[in-house]
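TL;DR need structure tokens for one chain.
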Amino acid sequence: MIKFCGHTLISNFAVMKMEHYIAQLLYRYQCVTVPGFGAFLTEIQPAQLVESTNTFYPPKKVVSFNANLKNNDGLLATHIAQAEKVAYEMAVQNISKEVSLWKNALLNQQNIVLNAVGTLHLNTSGTLSFEASSQVNFNTASFGLNSFVSPLVQREIIEKMPEAVATEPIVLVPETVTASRTSYLKYAAIFILALTAAGSVGYKMYNDQMDQELRFVQTEVQKDVQNKIQEATFFIENPLPNVTLTVKEEKKAYHIVAGAFSSEANAAKQLKILEAKGFKGKILGRNKYGLVPVLYGSYSTYAESQEALKAIHRTESREAWLLIKD
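>> reply
TL;DR here they are.
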């Protein structure tokens, strides 16, 4: 329903409530065009402070109207068709009928009040004017935010006082001094210097004497300590009996093994090959694994066995290994 100058005019499709659908679209779109009439535009306005009244206003969408944008962009008609569950063509026809009623009302000098959107009227020059409503904020980011008045903040300015500077009293010394006074001061200064020098000499003599006495005491103490050490070293009254320790010398044999065979015949063949090459070969008894080791040779020291093993690795076989037996 659209109100004209306080009177309610019901159109043929009053249930459509076109201003209601325009308001719905203004939440989501920047421009909502009413075909054949004009377009409602929105612009984001940041938060504001009115200093004269100490009032804070949240960000909002400011609605304006442009009568030159009349072409149908399909936005309003499509939205109405979906909401009213009618065909798109029927929605366009209903919009056209509503616009005709708006124009007739304006020609009759009546105001068109669109709930939550604003008021349209013709001014004295015949130009269409629009006044936006302040009841609704179409900025969804400011949902729930209202304007409020803040109490005036009183700022107290504390003046910092300069810190007091402590000053020492100034003693004025007269410029003129009598001759006798001057002579007395000279003698007093000489006497103080003499006392200082005498004190320094006496202190040095005292320190030298203390150093001599300390060195004498240290010398006597050292002599006494040396005498005690000599008595303890050379004059033991009850010497302990001598203890003889017997060290058992362990002998080990170092064998270089050419191979280990399960057959004694094969071990004998390997021994002949080693003896033919000049090695002092040897066959050991079977070990706990049931094998007969054949040796390149045996050595009494570890160093000799290492030298021989390196030579065998270079000239004979890298498979030779060292066997150490007690």
